[in-house]
Structures are given as structure tokens and as C-alpha cells.
Amino acid sequence: MPVHNSDVADKFNRVADLLDIKGENEYRIRAYRNAAQTISGLSRSVVESVEKGEDLSELSGIGKDLAGKIEEIVKTGELEQLRQLEREVPTGLRQLLSIEDLGPKRVKQLHEEIGIKSIEDLEKAAKAGKIQNMEGFGKKTTQKILEAIDRAKKEGPKKRFRLNEAEERSLPLLDYLKKTEGVKKAEIAGSYRRRKETVGDVDILVTCKQGTNIMDRFVNYEDVQKVISKGDTRSSIMLRNNLQVDLRVVPEVSYGAAMLYFTGSKAHNVALRKKAVENDWKMNEYGLFKGKKRIGGKTEKELYEKFGLQYIEPELRENRGEFDAAANNELPDLVKLKDIRGDLQSHTKATDGKYSLEEMATAAKEKGYDYFAITDHSKRVTVANGMDEKRLLKQLEEIDRLNEKIKGFRVLKSVEVDILKDGTLDLADEVLEKLDIVICSIHYNFKLSRQAQTRRVLKAMEHPCFHILAHPTGRMLGKREPYEIDLEKVIDAAKENRCYLEINAQPDRLDLNDVYAGMAKEKGVKLAISTDAHTISDLDLMRFGVGQARRAWLQKEDILNTHSWEELKKMLKKK
Ligand code: DGT
Ligand code: CA
Ligand code: CA
Ligand code: ZN
To answer: How far apart are the CA of 442 and the centre of ligand 4, in A?
Structure first.
């Protein structure tokens, strides 16, 4: 079975959780968590490392013992120690871990103090007011837990996958299908192709020569947990991580029509089919027909042309005005990954990043960027070892030295400064004034009223050093709702104060979302697409941010970091 870095990291995190519930040694628990972090931050696959016989114990935080466990997972897909722990800790307790805001420590406490054994127990106890008086809980936490239980119920058993989770599993599968003798084309359609932030399932289309045994090959893929259905032209499988993949084999003459149909969105398809009916045509996944005669279907482009439309990029196919724009030749020329010239949010070891300033900057330069902002956290963020003025000033000197050393590339002096509850910034003005670019964000007091939260950000934006509002809603997909804030007002204030907004490219943030990023553009506010890199491999997340920007109809010029540093510098000047 193909093992991914995230499988190894998952297993280690689960071991840590279960050891924690059992009350084992803190040091040992931390070792598993650190190892999980190291593995998921690696830019190469552990499988390859093991196959090449590399010594994994050379990685930071991985000793001989853990290296052996990684090897065991790579070779067998399992970890005996985890199985053992799963036998020891009851299922109900393990399920409690899936409730947000409940770490292993709290699960242990709930179990030991009031005998909670399951999610049902927890909900009853919370509603009966039994939890809020426990040490470390309180009314607020109890409320949050009840909300999380509600959310878990609403989402039901069928969870949506983040785009990166889907990508990690489907690209190797796509590759495997492409390598099948007789296969001509193989592409992913559906919400994945539209770069939606989460996908329900993955839809793959293939064309192949007569007699290709593609369905057998598909259901025999190593990562398959279960075959849901198998037919001649359509099959569905469930991968080991519970992601469903549908495969359809289509005739070559229908490929464009099938791609169009299965890329969706459904709303886009329905609108297009309506246009067909208006022309007295019929349109389906096999083609476009006038009576019995096929008048199109081989390529998507040809189909759109038949309707007098420009080719519509998948990210725009949501029936949000793309048809009118395409009819008037007014579709945007969407921003592309290769347009990006620098990254405007990154962290180093100085706070919660994993690599040094020089390592991060060198990696950014190797990506072909012209500039790169180092934006470590400010002092309020104690959990990330946030920097005070003194430490930041020292880092600025380090950046000066580095800039003298690295040629043809500029490390920008920056910081991710916290917006405090009252709307002031977490660092002194004299220091902020020395920076090339100032990224501002909220990491605390998420629960303010909509009015107070909006006021807080608006006040901060009046600060003459404020450049970019990072992850403007604080949401984490599947984990944390956005905080209450009036984004329309925030966008207007950004316009007024010459501030900008971020599309954070981390796949669990993708914040701003497509709708509000589009609104920012409408109102004349440019956006930065930033990876918020905490490791070198995070620099590759840029593609997810670009996908979100494309869904928001953004063009190259709408994005701050497609501009040269000289141009960007002018945009950062305040009135
Ligand atoms: P997902 O998987 O929930 O993230 O979203 P999609 O868009 O990938 O939806 P999915 O997998 O159910 O179906 C793939 C595409 O097939 C969808 O985008 C449009 C097309 N499709 C599915 N059902 C219908 C339908 O009832 N009518 C039309 N016109 N198209 C459909
Ligand atoms: Ca789908
Ligand atoms: Ca599907
Ligand atoms: Zn951070």
C-alpha cells in the first residue's frame, strides 16, 4: 500500500493522543508529536527515504526508536504499538477526541472525574450543567463543546476533504491509471478541477483503446479500502482514508462533453443545458445534438464556441456570472501560479517555524522568487514564542546581513503583528516603521461581537504602518468557524486606508474565501496570496491560494505579489 507522509504523521499523533489519555510520560508524548510535525513538513516522501536506505534518525526529533517505527509503517502500513493502544483505550473515549476543543487531557479528565465514556455521555453531561464547574472548563468551553458536537452531527458520517488531502491521494492514483496499457487520456474533473476548497468525492475521466482492462486495474489499486461499485463504464472505490473516487470511461468523441458535464458545477451545467434547449439542441455527457446529429462534444472549447461563448475556466463554473461575461468577451485573464514573484508571509525558527531565516530565504529564492517576507509572530502570541521589539530588531540586522550575501533576491523585513483586542498593534511604532511590509492578524479574542470585532480591525487599519490583513476571518476548514466580522466594512476600510487583504494559501485556511476575495476586487482592493509557510515544503502551498484567487475571478494585476518589488513598494506607501 502506498504510504504517505501524512499517514505516518497521523499514526504518531494518534499514538501521542492515546498515551496522553492513559496519562503516560509527557516527554515521550511530546516526542511523538514532534516527530509527526517533522514528517508532515518534509518535502520528500518517507517511503522513498526508507527505500533508499537513508538514515531517518538524522531528521530532527527522530531517534533510532522512532526511525524504526517509521520503517514499520512504510513496510507494513501499520504500527503494532498503535493497535495495542487502540485495544487498551475504549472506542467511545477515542471518539471523544474527534470533538474539537477536546484534547486527550480533557478526555482523560472527563473520564476520570465524571465517568464520561462517549459523545452521548458528554452531550448529556454538558446539557445538565455538569461540566462547566469542572476545573479548566467553564461555561464558554462547555458551550463550544456543545457547538462542536452539533457540528459533528450535522456533517454526518460523510466528511468533505480538503483539497490538499484529495490531491495527495488522487494524483498517485491518476498517475497509476495513466500508466495503464491502452489508456489515452486521464483527468480529474468535478469540484477538484474547479479548485473548490473542499471536495465531496473525486471524479476521474479516462479514454482508452478498445479492450483495455481499465476497471479491473482501477479496483485493484493498492490504496483501495472497498469497491463500492464496478461496471463497464463506471466504477466507484473508497480509498483507505475514506475518500470516494468515481471513474468513468468515455468515448473519445464525447470527451469534451463528459469533461464539461462532470466538472460541473451542477448549477453551471443546468444553465448551459437551458441554453441548449433554447436553441432546440440537446446536451448531455455524450455531446451536443441537433436532432440525432452530433454537433459537438470532442473538446470543451468547441462546445462553448457553439454557444458563442469564450472558453470558461473550471474555477469560474459556478453560475456566478460567467455566461454573461463569456458572451461579451469579458472573462478575466485569471492569475496563474507562474505570475507569483514572491511570498509575503512566512515563519522561521525564531517563532513557530521549523527552519532558520537563511534556510527559508534560500528555499524561496530557489523557487524562482524575487522577494520573500519574513513575518514571524509578535510577542502577544506567546504559544509561538512571539518576538518583542528587541528580538525583532535583532532579526532585522540578520536580514541586512543576509541580503548582502544573497544576490538578485530580496528578503523583506516584516512581521506578523497581532491586532490586540482594542485595535492597537502589538509592537511599538518606531519598530514597525523600520519594516518593508507589515502583516497584521488576529490570534486572540475570537468571540467578540460582530460590531466589536469589526471596530477592532477598522481601528487597526488606521495605523499608518498597517499593510496587509492576514487570514481575515480566522476560519479553519472543518475545525473552526470564521469569527463574526463585517467583511464588507473591512474591505471598504482597506480601500480607504490603502490596506490590502490576504488569501492565505494554507489548505485548511484559504481565507479570504472566493466570494469575499471577489468582493475585494470589485471594490478596488488588491490581495496578497501568501503561504504562511512554517516549513520549507509549505512554500509549495501557493497553488492552493492561486486556485482560490482564480475562483474569485482575480487577474494578475489584482494580486500584490505578482508585481516587482519596485512596484510593490509604491503600493505600500501610505498617503
Ligand atoms: P463534490 O464532489 O460534492 O465536491 O462536488 P462535485 O461538483 O464534484 O459533484 P459530484 O461529484 O456530485 O458530481 C460531479 C459533477 O457531475 C458535478 O459537478 C456536475 C455533474 N452532475 C452531477 N449530478 C448532476 C445533476 O444532477 N445534474 C447535472 N446537470 N449535473 C450533475
Ligand atoms: Ca466530486
Ligand atoms: Ca462524484
Ligand atoms: Zn505561526
So the answer is: 11
